[in-house]
Specification:
eight-stranded antiparallel sheet, 13 helices
Length: 566
Amino acid sequence: MRGPGAPKDPENRRAFFYVIRDKEIFGAKQPDGQAVQFLYEDMGRLENSARVTGNITDEEMLALLRDTEGFRKLVHSIGVSVETENPGQEVTFIFQMYGKEDRLGGGTQICGRLRGDGAEMRLKLEEIQWSADDKEPGQILFVFDQSELMATASVRFYLHEGFQAPEISEESEVDFHSQDYQNMIRRSLMHMGDTGRVRQAIGRAQSGEEVTIAYIGGSITQGAGAVPINSECYVFKSYQNFAKRFGRGGNVRFIKAGVGGTPSELGMIRFERDVLRDGRETPDIVIVEFAVNDEGDETQGNCYESLVRKILTLPGSPAVVLLFSVFADDWNLQERLKVVGERYRLPMISVRDAVTPQFLLKPGEGRVLSKNQFFYDMFHPTNVGHTIMADCLTYFFEQAAGNKSAKEAFLKDGLPAPVIGADFEQVRLMDRKEMPDAVRVSCGGFSDTDENLQAVEMDGELECTPQFPYNWMHGAGEEAAPFEMEITCKALLLIFKDSGEVKAGRADVFVDGERKLTADPHVNGWIHCNAVILFQEEEAKRHTIRVQMAAGDERKEFTILGFGYV
Protein backbone atom coordinates (compact mmCIF):
# COMPACT_ATOMS: atom_id res chain seq x y z
CA MET A 1 0.00 0.00 0.00
CA ARG A 2 1.41 3.40 -1.00
CA GLY A 3 0.20 6.90 -0.27
CA PRO A 4 -0.42 9.47 -2.97
CA GLY A 5 2.55 10.98 -4.74
CA ALA A 6 1.06 14.47 -4.49
CA PRO A 7 -1.87 16.04 -2.64
CA LYS A 8 -5.27 15.58 -4.26
CA ASP A 9 -6.51 19.03 -3.34
CA PRO A 10 -3.52 21.42 -3.12
CA GLU A 11 -4.05 25.12 -2.46
CA ASN A 12 -2.95 27.07 -5.54
CA ARG A 13 0.69 26.31 -6.30
CA ARG A 14 2.32 27.36 -3.04
CA ALA A 15 5.85 25.96 -2.75
CA PHE A 16 6.12 22.95 -0.44
CA PHE A 17 8.43 20.14 0.54
CA TYR A 18 7.91 16.78 2.21
CA VAL A 19 9.11 15.95 5.70
CA ILE A 20 7.27 12.62 5.66
CA ARG A 21 6.67 10.95 2.32
CA ASP A 22 4.78 7.69 1.93
CA LYS A 23 5.88 6.39 5.31
CA GLU A 24 4.18 3.45 6.99
CA ILE A 25 2.54 4.24 10.34
CA PHE A 26 1.04 1.91 12.90
CA GLY A 27 -1.27 2.39 15.85
CA ALA A 28 0.81 0.86 18.63
CA LYS A 29 -1.17 0.39 21.83
CA GLN A 30 0.03 2.66 24.65
CA PRO A 31 -0.25 2.08 28.43
CA ASP A 32 -3.20 4.50 28.55
CA GLY A 33 -5.03 2.51 25.87
CA GLN A 34 -4.46 4.93 22.99
CA ALA A 35 -3.15 3.69 19.63
CA VAL A 36 -0.33 6.01 18.54
CA GLN A 37 2.50 6.30 16.02
CA PHE A 38 5.20 8.67 17.34
CA LEU A 39 7.62 10.42 14.98
CA TYR A 40 10.17 12.49 16.90
CA GLU A 41 11.33 15.70 15.25
CA ASP A 42 13.69 17.22 17.84
CA MET A 43 17.49 16.84 18.05
CA GLY A 44 17.92 17.81 14.38
CA ARG A 45 15.47 15.22 13.08
CA LEU A 46 13.16 17.75 11.40
CA GLU A 47 16.07 19.46 9.69
CA ASN A 48 17.34 16.09 8.50
CA SER A 49 13.89 15.15 7.18
CA ALA A 50 13.86 18.35 5.17
CA ARG A 51 17.25 17.42 3.69
CA VAL A 52 16.59 13.76 2.99
CA THR A 53 12.88 13.69 2.21
CA GLY A 54 12.35 17.25 0.99
CA ASN A 55 15.69 17.70 -0.82
CA ILE A 56 16.19 21.07 0.90
CA THR A 57 19.77 22.34 0.63
CA ASP A 58 19.25 26.00 1.59
CA GLU A 59 21.03 26.27 4.95
CA GLU A 60 19.00 29.34 6.01
CA MET A 61 15.75 27.46 5.48
CA LEU A 62 17.07 24.46 7.35
CA ALA A 63 18.16 26.62 10.26
CA LEU A 64 14.63 28.01 10.59
CA LEU A 65 13.36 24.52 11.45
CA ARG A 66 15.40 24.38 14.66
CA ASP A 67 13.00 26.41 16.80
CA THR A 68 9.34 27.38 16.83
CA GLU A 69 9.99 31.02 15.94
CA GLY A 70 11.89 30.07 12.79
CA PHE A 71 9.38 27.35 11.96
CA ARG A 72 6.58 29.91 11.92
CA LYS A 73 8.60 32.24 9.69
CA LEU A 74 9.16 29.49 7.13
CA VAL A 75 5.97 27.42 7.16
CA HIS A 76 2.64 28.83 6.04
CA SER A 77 0.62 25.64 6.50
CA ILE A 78 0.96 21.90 7.03
CA GLY A 79 -0.53 19.41 4.60
CA VAL A 80 -1.29 15.93 5.93
CA SER A 81 -2.63 12.89 4.11
CA VAL A 82 -3.20 9.37 5.38
CA GLU A 83 -4.22 6.30 3.43
CA THR A 84 -5.69 3.35 5.31
CA GLU A 85 -7.13 0.07 4.09
CA ASN A 86 -10.56 1.41 5.04
CA PRO A 87 -10.89 4.93 3.54
CA GLY A 88 -13.54 5.76 6.12
CA GLN A 89 -11.13 5.19 8.99
CA GLU A 90 -10.31 8.48 10.75
CA VAL A 91 -6.91 9.39 12.20
CA THR A 92 -5.94 12.31 14.44
CA PHE A 93 -2.79 14.24 13.50
CA ILE A 94 -0.86 16.14 16.18
CA PHE A 95 2.27 18.23 15.70
CA GLN A 96 3.56 19.06 19.17
CA MET A 97 5.99 21.84 19.99
CA TYR A 98 8.25 21.20 22.98
CA GLY A 99 8.20 23.83 25.71
CA LYS A 100 11.01 25.88 27.23
CA GLU A 101 9.94 25.32 30.82
CA ASP A 102 7.56 22.39 30.47
CA ARG A 103 9.13 20.35 27.69
CA LEU A 104 6.35 17.84 27.18
CA GLY A 105 3.32 19.80 28.33
CA GLY A 106 3.99 23.49 27.70
CA GLY A 107 4.13 23.70 23.91
CA THR A 108 1.50 24.23 21.24
CA GLN A 109 -0.25 21.22 19.74
CA ILE A 110 -1.32 21.62 16.11
CA CYS A 111 -4.18 19.14 15.69
CA GLY A 112 -6.46 17.91 12.96
CA ARG A 113 -8.80 15.01 12.26
CA LEU A 114 -8.67 13.44 8.79
CA ARG A 115 -10.02 10.48 6.87
CA GLY A 116 -7.80 7.68 5.60
CA ASP A 117 -8.73 8.22 1.96
CA GLY A 118 -5.49 9.92 0.89
CA ALA A 119 -7.03 13.38 0.62
CA GLU A 120 -4.96 16.18 2.10
CA MET A 121 -5.95 18.14 5.18
CA ARG A 122 -4.43 21.63 5.42
CA LEU A 123 -3.62 23.27 8.75
CA LYS A 124 -2.84 26.98 8.46
CA LEU A 125 -0.43 28.22 11.10
CA GLU A 126 -2.01 31.67 11.19
CA GLU A 127 -5.12 30.05 12.69
CA ILE A 128 -3.22 28.40 15.55
CA GLN A 129 -3.21 29.82 19.07
CA TRP A 130 0.45 29.59 20.03
CA SER A 131 1.90 29.07 23.50
CA ALA A 132 4.37 31.48 25.07
CA ASP A 133 6.36 28.44 26.22
CA ASP A 134 7.06 27.16 22.69
CA LYS A 135 10.69 26.26 22.11
CA GLU A 136 11.06 23.88 19.16
CA PRO A 137 9.22 21.39 16.95
CA GLY A 138 9.06 18.26 19.08
CA GLN A 139 7.08 15.32 17.73
CA ILE A 140 4.40 14.25 15.29
CA LEU A 141 1.72 11.84 16.47
CA PHE A 142 -0.85 9.89 14.48
CA VAL A 143 -3.59 8.68 16.82
CA PHE A 144 -5.82 5.85 15.63
CA ASP A 145 -9.24 4.96 17.01
CA GLN A 146 -8.20 1.32 17.13
CA SER A 147 -4.82 -0.24 17.92
CA GLU A 148 -2.66 -2.24 15.52
CA LEU A 149 -3.99 -0.57 12.37
CA MET A 150 -1.57 0.32 9.58
CA ALA A 151 -1.57 3.26 7.19
CA THR A 152 0.67 5.29 4.91
CA ALA A 153 1.20 8.97 5.70
CA SER A 154 2.69 12.05 4.11
CA VAL A 155 3.34 15.45 5.67
CA ARG A 156 4.20 18.53 3.59
CA PHE A 157 5.27 21.97 4.69
CA TYR A 158 3.80 24.73 2.53
CA LEU A 159 6.03 27.79 2.57
CA HIS A 160 5.49 31.50 3.00
CA GLU A 161 6.01 33.73 -0.02
CA GLY A 162 9.69 34.31 -0.72
CA PHE A 163 10.79 30.75 0.03
CA GLN A 164 11.35 28.21 -2.71
CA ALA A 165 11.47 24.42 -2.65
CA PRO A 166 13.05 22.04 -5.18
CA GLU A 167 11.02 19.85 -7.49
CA ILE A 168 9.81 16.56 -6.07
CA SER A 169 12.02 13.72 -7.27
CA GLU A 170 10.44 10.51 -8.47
CA GLU A 171 11.06 7.31 -6.53
CA SER A 172 10.66 3.91 -8.18
CA GLU A 173 9.88 0.75 -6.29
CA VAL A 174 12.91 -1.05 -4.87
CA ASP A 175 13.74 -4.11 -6.97
CA PHE A 176 14.94 -6.66 -4.42
CA HIS A 177 15.87 -9.12 -7.18
CA SER A 178 18.00 -6.85 -9.35
CA GLN A 179 21.73 -7.31 -9.87
CA ASP A 180 22.33 -3.83 -8.44
CA TYR A 181 20.53 -4.87 -5.26
CA GLN A 182 22.60 -8.04 -4.96
CA ASN A 183 25.80 -6.05 -5.50
CA MET A 184 24.74 -3.65 -2.73
CA ILE A 185 24.14 -6.51 -0.29
CA ARG A 186 27.54 -8.07 -1.10
CA ARG A 187 29.30 -4.83 -0.16
CA SER A 188 28.03 -5.19 3.39
CA LEU A 189 30.37 -8.09 4.18
CA MET A 190 33.15 -5.99 5.63
CA HIS A 191 35.10 -8.83 7.26
CA MET A 192 34.38 -12.55 6.99
CA GLY A 193 36.37 -13.40 10.07
CA ASP A 194 36.65 -16.88 11.48
CA THR A 195 33.30 -18.50 10.79
CA GLY A 196 33.94 -21.66 12.82
CA ARG A 197 31.45 -20.91 15.59
CA VAL A 198 28.83 -19.73 13.10
CA ARG A 199 29.20 -22.89 11.02
CA GLN A 200 28.85 -25.02 14.12
CA ALA A 201 25.56 -23.26 14.97
CA ILE A 202 24.34 -23.70 11.40
CA GLY A 203 25.25 -27.39 11.55
CA ARG A 204 23.28 -27.84 14.77
CA ALA A 205 20.27 -26.12 13.21
CA GLN A 206 20.47 -28.32 10.10
CA SER A 207 20.62 -31.46 12.25
CA GLY A 208 17.44 -30.48 14.10
CA GLU A 209 18.97 -29.26 17.36
CA GLU A 210 17.51 -26.15 18.98
CA VAL A 211 19.47 -23.04 18.03
CA THR A 212 18.98 -19.52 19.40
CA ILE A 213 20.06 -16.28 17.72
CA ALA A 214 20.25 -13.26 20.03
CA TYR A 215 20.42 -9.59 19.05
CA ILE A 216 21.57 -6.84 21.40
CA GLY A 217 21.80 -3.16 20.49
CA GLY A 218 20.04 0.18 20.48
CA SER A 219 16.82 1.44 18.97
CA ILE A 220 17.47 -0.07 15.52
CA THR A 221 17.67 -3.50 17.13
CA GLN A 222 14.56 -2.61 19.13
CA GLY A 223 12.97 -2.16 15.72
CA ALA A 224 12.50 1.62 15.51
CA GLY A 225 11.26 2.67 12.07
CA ALA A 226 9.78 -0.75 11.34
CA VAL A 227 6.00 -0.84 10.99
CA PRO A 228 4.85 -2.88 12.81
CA ILE A 229 7.92 -2.97 14.98
CA ASN A 230 7.74 -6.64 15.95
CA SER A 231 7.44 -8.28 12.53
CA GLU A 232 9.07 -5.81 10.11
CA CYS A 233 12.30 -5.19 12.04
CA TYR A 234 15.61 -6.56 10.77
CA VAL A 235 15.86 -8.85 13.80
CA PHE A 236 12.69 -10.77 13.03
CA LYS A 237 13.31 -10.84 9.29
CA SER A 238 16.89 -12.10 9.57
CA TYR A 239 15.83 -14.71 12.13
CA GLN A 240 13.09 -15.86 9.76
CA ASN A 241 15.57 -16.08 6.88
CA PHE A 242 17.99 -18.14 9.00
CA ALA A 243 15.25 -20.47 10.21
CA LYS A 244 13.90 -21.01 6.70
CA ARG A 245 17.34 -21.69 5.23
CA PHE A 246 18.93 -23.77 7.99
CA GLY A 247 16.24 -24.76 10.49
CA ARG A 248 14.28 -27.98 10.79
CA GLY A 249 10.76 -28.09 12.18
CA GLY A 250 10.75 -24.85 14.18
CA ASN A 251 14.01 -25.51 16.03
CA VAL A 252 15.40 -21.97 15.55
CA ARG A 253 14.50 -19.33 18.16
CA PHE A 254 15.46 -15.70 18.59
CA ILE A 255 15.98 -13.15 21.36
CA LYS A 256 15.58 -9.44 20.68
CA ALA A 257 17.22 -7.18 23.27
CA GLY A 258 17.37 -3.70 21.76
CA VAL A 259 16.87 -0.64 23.98
CA GLY A 260 16.55 2.75 22.29
CA GLY A 261 19.06 5.49 23.03
CA THR A 262 21.47 3.24 24.92
CA PRO A 263 25.13 2.36 24.19
CA SER A 264 27.25 -0.69 24.95
CA GLU A 265 27.99 1.05 28.27
CA LEU A 266 24.50 -0.07 29.30
CA GLY A 267 24.35 -3.13 27.04
CA MET A 268 27.21 -4.83 28.86
CA ILE A 269 25.35 -4.37 32.18
CA ARG A 270 21.97 -5.68 31.04
CA PHE A 271 23.34 -8.56 28.92
CA GLU A 272 22.73 -11.27 31.53
CA ARG A 273 19.21 -10.00 32.17
CA ASP A 274 18.07 -9.25 28.62
CA VAL A 275 19.93 -11.88 26.57
CA LEU A 276 20.78 -14.72 28.94
CA ARG A 277 17.54 -14.08 30.84
CA ASP A 278 19.39 -14.66 34.11
CA GLY A 279 20.69 -18.06 33.04
CA ARG A 280 17.60 -19.40 31.30
CA GLU A 281 18.93 -18.86 27.76
CA THR A 282 22.10 -20.06 26.01
CA PRO A 283 22.38 -18.30 22.63
CA ASP A 284 24.35 -19.91 19.81
CA ILE A 285 24.85 -16.70 17.83
CA VAL A 286 24.83 -13.13 19.18
CA ILE A 287 24.51 -10.11 16.87
CA VAL A 288 25.98 -6.95 18.49
CA GLU A 289 24.68 -3.62 17.10
CA PHE A 290 26.04 -0.51 18.83
CA ALA A 291 27.93 1.24 16.02
CA VAL A 292 25.58 4.25 16.03
CA ASN A 293 24.96 4.37 19.77
CA ASP A 294 28.47 4.49 21.20
CA GLU A 295 29.52 8.05 20.36
CA GLY A 296 29.01 9.04 23.99
CA ASP A 297 30.79 5.96 25.39
CA GLU A 298 33.08 7.36 28.07
CA THR A 299 35.62 4.55 27.46
CA GLN A 300 35.90 4.96 23.67
CA GLY A 301 35.42 1.25 23.04
CA ASN A 302 36.42 -0.41 26.33
CA CYS A 303 32.76 -1.12 27.15
CA TYR A 304 32.14 -2.46 23.64
CA GLU A 305 35.11 -4.83 23.76
CA SER A 306 34.17 -5.86 27.30
CA LEU A 307 30.73 -6.88 26.04
CA VAL A 308 32.20 -8.82 23.13
CA ARG A 309 34.58 -10.70 25.43
CA LYS A 310 31.77 -11.37 27.92
CA ILE A 311 29.86 -13.13 25.11
CA LEU A 312 32.82 -15.00 23.64
CA THR A 313 33.72 -16.55 27.00
CA LEU A 314 30.25 -17.92 27.75
CA PRO A 315 30.17 -21.69 28.44
CA GLY A 316 28.33 -22.44 25.20
CA SER A 317 30.97 -20.65 23.07
CA PRO A 318 28.48 -18.63 21.01
CA ALA A 319 29.45 -16.96 17.76
CA VAL A 320 29.61 -13.16 17.80
CA VAL A 321 28.73 -11.11 14.72
CA LEU A 322 29.35 -7.35 14.71
CA LEU A 323 26.70 -5.36 12.85
CA PHE A 324 27.45 -1.73 11.96
CA SER A 325 24.26 0.19 11.19
CA VAL A 326 24.28 3.76 9.86
CA PHE A 327 22.62 7.16 10.31
CA ALA A 328 21.22 9.30 7.50
CA ASP A 329 24.33 11.49 7.49
CA ASP A 330 26.34 8.36 6.52
CA TRP A 331 27.94 8.18 9.97
CA ASN A 332 28.79 5.30 12.24
CA LEU A 333 31.68 4.18 14.45
CA GLN A 334 32.92 1.20 12.47
CA GLU A 335 36.43 2.65 12.20
CA ARG A 336 36.71 2.72 15.99
CA LEU A 337 35.07 -0.65 16.57
CA LYS A 338 36.45 -2.74 13.72
CA VAL A 339 39.72 -3.28 15.59
CA VAL A 340 37.73 -5.38 18.06
CA GLY A 341 36.43 -7.55 15.25
CA GLU A 342 39.89 -7.88 13.79
CA ARG A 343 41.44 -8.84 17.14
CA TYR A 344 38.99 -11.73 17.68
CA ARG A 345 38.52 -12.56 13.97
CA LEU A 346 34.83 -11.80 14.16
CA PRO A 347 32.49 -11.43 11.20
CA MET A 348 31.67 -7.77 10.59
CA ILE A 349 28.76 -6.51 8.52
CA SER A 350 28.53 -2.85 7.53
CA VAL A 351 25.19 -1.45 6.43
CA ARG A 352 27.02 1.80 5.74
CA ASP A 353 29.33 0.12 3.23
CA ALA A 354 26.31 -1.40 1.52
CA VAL A 355 23.97 1.55 1.08
CA THR A 356 25.87 4.84 1.21
CA PRO A 357 27.84 4.51 -2.08
CA GLN A 358 24.67 4.00 -4.10
CA PHE A 359 22.97 7.05 -2.54
CA LEU A 360 25.36 9.18 -4.64
CA LEU A 361 24.18 7.60 -7.89
CA LYS A 362 21.29 8.67 -10.07
CA PRO A 363 18.43 6.37 -11.08
CA GLY A 364 19.62 4.21 -13.96
CA GLU A 365 23.24 4.41 -12.83
CA GLY A 366 23.08 1.63 -10.28
CA ARG A 367 21.13 3.39 -7.53
CA VAL A 368 18.87 0.92 -5.78
CA LEU A 369 16.97 3.29 -3.51
CA SER A 370 16.99 6.84 -2.13
CA LYS A 371 17.76 7.91 1.41
CA ASN A 372 14.08 8.66 1.90
CA GLN A 373 13.28 5.06 1.03
CA PHE A 374 15.92 3.65 3.38
CA PHE A 375 15.53 5.99 6.38
CA TYR A 376 12.36 6.49 8.39
CA ASP A 377 14.05 9.40 10.15
CA MET A 378 17.65 10.49 10.58
CA PHE A 379 18.43 7.55 12.86
CA HIS A 380 16.24 4.61 11.89
CA PRO A 381 15.49 2.51 8.80
CA THR A 382 12.13 2.09 7.12
CA ASN A 383 10.63 -1.32 6.50
CA VAL A 384 12.71 -1.38 3.32
CA GLY A 385 15.80 -0.42 5.31
CA HIS A 386 15.18 -3.14 7.86
CA THR A 387 14.75 -5.65 5.01
CA ILE A 388 18.12 -4.60 3.60
CA MET A 389 19.77 -5.05 7.01
CA ALA A 390 18.24 -8.51 7.30
CA ASP A 391 19.43 -9.40 3.80
CA CYS A 392 22.96 -8.29 4.70
CA LEU A 393 22.95 -10.72 7.64
CA THR A 394 21.40 -13.45 5.50
CA TYR A 395 24.10 -13.00 2.86
CA PHE A 396 26.77 -13.43 5.52
CA PHE A 397 25.17 -16.61 6.89
CA GLU A 398 24.97 -18.03 3.37
CA GLN A 399 28.65 -17.30 2.80
CA ALA A 400 29.60 -18.72 6.21
CA ALA A 401 27.71 -21.96 5.51
CA GLY A 402 29.80 -22.50 2.41
CA ASN A 403 33.11 -21.40 3.94
CA LYS A 404 35.03 -24.68 4.06
CA SER A 405 38.26 -23.01 5.20
CA ALA A 406 36.92 -21.92 8.61
CA LYS A 407 39.49 -22.24 11.40
CA GLU A 408 37.38 -23.73 14.14
CA ALA A 409 40.29 -23.96 16.60
CA PHE A 410 40.55 -20.20 17.05
CA LEU A 411 39.63 -18.94 20.56
CA LYS A 412 39.52 -22.48 22.00
CA ASP A 413 42.67 -21.78 24.03
CA GLY A 414 41.34 -18.50 25.43
CA LEU A 415 41.04 -14.93 24.22
CA PRO A 416 43.94 -12.80 23.05
CA ALA A 417 44.83 -9.64 24.95
CA PRO A 418 42.28 -6.83 24.51
CA VAL A 419 42.98 -4.27 21.80
CA ILE A 420 41.10 -1.35 23.46
CA GLY A 421 40.36 -2.68 26.94
CA ALA A 422 38.29 -5.18 28.86
CA ASP A 423 37.92 -3.54 32.26
CA PHE A 424 34.18 -4.28 32.37
CA GLU A 425 34.16 -7.86 31.09
CA GLN A 426 32.85 -9.09 34.45
CA VAL A 427 30.37 -6.25 35.06
CA ARG A 428 27.06 -7.24 36.65
CA LEU A 429 23.74 -5.51 37.25
CA MET A 430 22.67 -4.59 40.78
CA ASP A 431 19.21 -3.29 41.68
CA ARG A 432 16.60 -3.92 44.39
CA LYS A 433 16.10 -7.46 43.08
CA GLU A 434 19.73 -8.43 42.46
CA MET A 435 22.00 -7.31 45.33
CA PRO A 436 25.09 -9.09 46.72
CA ASP A 437 25.00 -9.90 50.43
CA ALA A 438 28.00 -7.68 51.19
CA VAL A 439 26.30 -4.54 49.83
CA ARG A 440 24.64 -2.27 52.37
CA VAL A 441 21.92 0.15 51.24
CA SER A 442 20.00 2.86 53.08
CA CYS A 443 17.27 4.21 50.78
CA GLY A 444 16.66 7.48 52.65
CA GLY A 445 14.30 9.60 50.59
CA PHE A 446 14.71 7.21 47.62
CA SER A 447 12.24 4.70 48.99
CA ASP A 448 9.61 4.79 46.22
CA THR A 449 9.56 2.63 43.09
CA ASP A 450 9.23 4.39 39.72
CA GLU A 451 6.76 2.76 37.33
CA ASN A 452 6.94 5.42 34.59
CA LEU A 453 9.90 3.84 32.80
CA GLN A 454 11.34 3.40 29.35
CA ALA A 455 9.66 0.34 27.91
CA VAL A 456 10.66 -1.66 24.84
CA GLU A 457 9.30 -4.43 22.64
CA MET A 458 11.32 -7.55 23.48
CA ASP A 459 11.59 -10.59 21.21
CA GLY A 460 8.53 -10.80 18.95
CA GLU A 461 6.18 -8.92 21.24
CA LEU A 462 4.23 -5.75 20.53
CA GLU A 463 3.62 -5.22 24.23
CA CYS A 464 6.42 -3.28 25.90
CA THR A 465 8.56 -4.44 28.82
CA PRO A 466 9.56 -1.74 31.37
CA GLN A 467 13.29 -1.33 31.81
CA PHE A 468 14.80 -1.53 35.33
CA PRO A 469 11.56 -1.90 37.33
CA TYR A 470 13.45 -2.72 40.56
CA ASN A 471 14.63 0.83 41.14
CA TRP A 472 14.96 3.44 43.89
CA MET A 473 12.94 6.62 43.37
CA HIS A 474 12.98 9.93 45.20
CA GLY A 475 9.38 11.08 44.85
CA ALA A 476 8.26 14.68 44.39
CA GLY A 477 7.74 16.28 47.79
CA GLU A 478 9.74 13.57 49.59
CA GLU A 479 12.23 14.34 52.32
CA ALA A 480 15.72 15.13 51.06
CA ALA A 481 17.51 12.32 52.94
CA PRO A 482 20.20 10.82 50.69
CA PHE A 483 20.51 7.33 49.27
CA GLU A 484 23.61 5.64 50.74
CA MET A 485 25.36 2.44 49.75
CA GLU A 486 28.49 0.59 50.85
CA ILE A 487 30.03 -1.73 48.26
CA THR A 488 33.33 -3.45 47.57
CA CYS A 489 34.28 -3.28 43.89
CA LYS A 490 36.88 -1.87 41.52
CA ALA A 491 34.48 -0.19 39.09
CA LEU A 492 30.97 1.19 39.50
CA LEU A 493 28.45 2.64 37.08
CA LEU A 494 25.25 4.47 38.02
CA ILE A 495 22.16 3.91 35.88
CA PHE A 496 19.60 6.69 36.26
CA LYS A 497 16.42 7.69 34.51
CA ASP A 498 16.39 10.49 31.96
CA SER A 499 13.17 12.48 31.72
CA GLY A 500 11.80 15.58 30.06
CA GLU A 501 9.28 16.20 32.83
CA VAL A 502 9.23 19.39 34.90
CA LYS A 503 8.94 17.44 38.15
CA ALA A 504 12.25 15.63 37.51
CA GLY A 505 15.25 17.04 39.37
CA ARG A 506 19.04 16.75 39.46
CA ALA A 507 20.99 14.65 41.94
CA ASP A 508 24.56 14.99 43.22
CA VAL A 509 26.54 11.74 43.41
CA PHE A 510 29.37 11.34 45.94
CA VAL A 511 31.99 8.58 46.24
CA ASP A 512 33.73 8.44 49.62
CA GLY A 513 32.61 12.00 50.33
CA GLU A 514 33.87 13.44 47.04
CA ARG A 515 31.30 14.73 44.55
CA LYS A 516 31.79 12.85 41.28
CA LEU A 517 29.00 14.30 39.18
CA THR A 518 25.57 15.88 39.10
CA ALA A 519 23.14 13.59 37.29
CA ASP A 520 20.73 15.72 35.25
CA PRO A 521 17.74 13.86 33.80
CA HIS A 522 16.91 16.73 31.45
CA VAL A 523 20.03 16.59 29.27
CA ASN A 524 18.54 14.08 26.83
CA GLY A 525 14.98 15.24 27.36
CA TRP A 526 13.10 11.96 27.07
CA ILE A 527 12.46 8.92 29.23
CA HIS A 528 15.28 6.46 28.86
CA CYS A 529 18.12 4.77 30.74
CA ASN A 530 21.45 6.54 31.25
CA ALA A 531 24.61 4.77 32.45
CA VAL A 532 27.62 6.77 33.73
CA ILE A 533 30.91 5.64 35.25
CA LEU A 534 31.46 6.71 38.87
CA PHE A 535 34.91 5.20 39.25
CA GLN A 536 37.25 2.67 37.65
CA GLU A 537 40.23 1.35 39.64
CA GLU A 538 42.84 -1.43 39.46
CA GLU A 539 41.83 -3.19 42.69
CA ALA A 540 38.56 -3.75 44.53
CA LYS A 541 38.07 -1.55 47.59
CA ARG A 542 35.27 -0.71 49.99
CA HIS A 543 33.49 2.48 48.91
CA THR A 544 30.62 4.58 50.22
CA ILE A 545 28.21 5.99 47.64
CA ARG A 546 25.81 8.83 48.40
CA VAL A 547 23.13 10.18 46.08
CA GLN A 548 21.25 13.29 47.20
CA MET A 549 19.00 15.77 45.48
CA ALA A 550 20.85 18.83 44.21
CA ALA A 551 20.30 22.25 45.72
CA GLY A 552 16.98 23.66 44.59
CA ASP A 553 15.66 20.27 43.51
CA GLU A 554 15.20 18.72 46.95
CA ARG A 555 11.48 18.10 46.41
CA LYS A 556 11.65 16.89 42.82
CA GLU A 557 11.82 13.34 41.45
CA PHE A 558 14.94 11.36 40.66
CA THR A 559 15.22 7.64 39.93
CA ILE A 560 18.22 5.39 40.48
CA LEU A 561 17.51 2.55 38.05
CA GLY A 562 20.41 0.43 39.24
CA PHE A 563 24.18 0.03 39.20
CA GLY A 564 26.76 -1.88 37.23
CA TYR A 565 29.65 -3.17 39.32
CA VAL A 566 32.90 -5.04 38.75
